[in-house]
Amino acid sequence: MTYLPVYAAVTARVVLALDAAWAVLRYATSGQAPRPYNAVTDRVEAWRDDRRPRPEPVPVPVLAAQLRRLSDQVQRISDSDRPAKALHLRAALLAYDDGLLRACSELGVRPPAGASRGMSREQRFSTESALLASGFAW
What we know:
- The chain has 138 residues and is an all-alpha fold.
- The protein folds into 2 domains: 4-51, no CATH class; 60-133, no CATH class.
- Helices cover 70% and strands 0% of the residues.
- It is built from 5 helices and no strands.
- It has helices at 4-30, 38-51, 60-79, 85-107, 121-133.
């Protein structure tokens, strides 16, 4: 009696189980689905976003005040030498990026390509430039 077909079937199942476990672990830690599942997760996220109520519009002076406060906070944190400075700076920058994107959506300004939550310096600069070019100042 040969055990080769049984061995091959068991090995294939173990490899598939490890691959699935790796994909779940990667999705749980980074939020990035494996490539074959990207289309499914994109549809689920779009469906979830469509079901959420739309936020009420924020007046332009309030947006400007929020962005001014957030930019001052980012500047204060970057100038300080407080404990966990990197963590505080990252949180402030995420809030600032969110404010920039909110201002873009409220004012009908199309943010530059690739600009999303957690922007790089270049993306943040181009988003700020697009808002300033539209006449919005904070």
